[in-house]
Backbone:
């Protein structure tokens, strides 16, 4: 492998890693810490090779990807928190059935009076009773419930945004595997060409028309390409495993990539209109808006904690020695509670709530700027990668033409095979650049779809717009 090819492959791998890390905010490089890189495997291996399309991979990912599953579970937890907070605004009704048998030692209770028995009982009674407790006026609880509603909505929006992240993650993994497969095909063609050159150099050396150096040079080129093929096949199998992990496919299930890398020139779009579309459609941005609304309600709840509360408590039941010998009893009480000396506690709660509100506002401002940057970055990447694809495609054609010319000159004895070796390296470099630029172009389109909040419409962007 020549130095330029090494650089190209390193840049490609680094770019892929950045794309995957960007897909999930707050992740680290370790794959295990990124839920969108994992899944809950379903099914068992069929023993047959599955033809996996990009659509099928994304459908499986939307169903089995760990990021989506955890987002759904977080939504369920937020729903539970909202219901729990709602209960504080509603009456609490309980029913109790009590059957009692008792015997009392009066002296033990401090009653030592002449003429009174020392022990009373055994005696018993039955009590069936319903009780109700209701906070009639509690502004703080109302504000906390409204905050819980906003948090629940934020969790729902985050779960929806997870679908766009899955499309980006799975699509990136699928396109990376496609580029690996294309790279293997290119290297195999180069190996075949190098083998022909080697056989030609061997024949010329035996005939005495070429020095041993030509044969050695051709053999080194041939074996170098064989090594590249081994490395490329290993990378392909590992990237297929990574793809299977993101979509919940059993790791022992063999599959082939049914789709090939698409290419369609992307029409220029209005940047400002795209930014406005992203701000209107991005679910993660809408989630930040809901989180700020929740923080604002919590701040109001902290202020409302200083207000009086009105509670009602009552019960009614039937009590007697037996149910046949019983009568109804009940009581009701209204309570007005006013905090008198809780200044430090109330002030501390208010400061904490204000800090959360300020933090939520700052995060929202940053998210709005990030959405703008995401769209502009994606459009720049698309334009750059599109030009690279066009140049690389021309370079491939020129490199193959140069190789053919060098082979003919060597076959006719006009020059040694140094020019052939150099031409083969140029072909390898041009092929690698074409594969890498095509991968970058398609990933940039997927990134734009995610940046616009339209990840599930990836087909429109991969096919051009």
Residues:
């Amino acid at each position: 492998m020549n130095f330029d090819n090494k650089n190209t492959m390193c840049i490609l791998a680094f770019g892929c890693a950045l794309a995957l890390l960007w897909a999930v905010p707050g992740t680290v490089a370790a794959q295990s810490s990124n839920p969108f890189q994992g899944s809950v495997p379903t099914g068992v291996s069929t023993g047959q090779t599955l033809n996996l399309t990009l659509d099928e991979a994304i459908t499986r990912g939307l169903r089995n990807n760990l990021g989506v599953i955890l987002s759904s579970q977080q939504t369920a937890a937020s729903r539970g928190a909202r219901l729990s907070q709602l209960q504080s605004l509603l009456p609490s009704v309980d029913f109790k059935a009590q059957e009692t048998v008792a015997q009392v030692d009066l002296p033990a209770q401090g009653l030592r009076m002449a003429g009174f028995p020392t022990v009373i009982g055994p005696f018993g009674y039955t009590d069936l009773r319903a009780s109700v407790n209701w906070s009639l006026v509690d502004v703080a609880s109302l504000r906390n419930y409204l905050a819980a509603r906003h948090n629940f909505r934020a969790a729902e929006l985050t779960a929806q945004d997870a679908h766009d992240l899955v499309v980006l993650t799975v699509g990136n993994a699928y396109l990376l595997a496609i580029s690996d497969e294309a790279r293997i095909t290119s290297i195999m063609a180069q190996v075949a060409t190098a083998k022909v050159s080697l056989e030609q150099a061997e024949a010329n050396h035996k005939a005495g028309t070429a020095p041993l150096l030509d044969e050695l040079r051709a053999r080194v080129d041939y074996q170098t390409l064989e090594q590249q093929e081994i490395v490329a096949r290993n990378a392909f199998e590992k990237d297929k495993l990574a793809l299977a992990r993101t979509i919940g496919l059993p790791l022992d299930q063999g599959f082939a990539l049914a789709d090939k890398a698409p290419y369609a020139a992307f029409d220029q779009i209005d940047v400002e209109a795209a930014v406005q579309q992203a701000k209107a459609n991005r679910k993660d941005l809408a989630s930040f808006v809901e989180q700020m609304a929740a923080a604002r309600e919590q701040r109001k709840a902290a202020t409302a904690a200083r207000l009086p509360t009105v509670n009602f408590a009552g019960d009614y039941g039937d009590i007697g020695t037996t149910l046949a010998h019983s009568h109804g009893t009940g009581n009701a009480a209204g309570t007005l509670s006013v905090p008198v000396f809780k200044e430090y506690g109330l002030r501390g709660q208010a400061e904490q709530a204000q800090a959360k509100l300020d933090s939520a506002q700052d995060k929202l401002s940053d998210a709005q700027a990030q959405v703008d940057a995401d769209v502009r970055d994606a459009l720049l990447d698309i334009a750059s990668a599109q030009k690279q694809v066009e140049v690389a495609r021309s370079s491939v054609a020129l490199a193959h033409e140069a190789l053919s010319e060098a082979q003919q000159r060597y076959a006719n004895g006009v020059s040694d095979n140094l020019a052939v070796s150099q031409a083969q390296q140029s072909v390898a470099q041009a092929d690698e650049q074409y594969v890498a630029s095509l991968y970058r172009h398609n990933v940039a389109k997927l990134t734009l779809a995610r940046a616009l909040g339209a990840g599930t419409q990836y087909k429109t962007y991969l096919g051009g717009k």
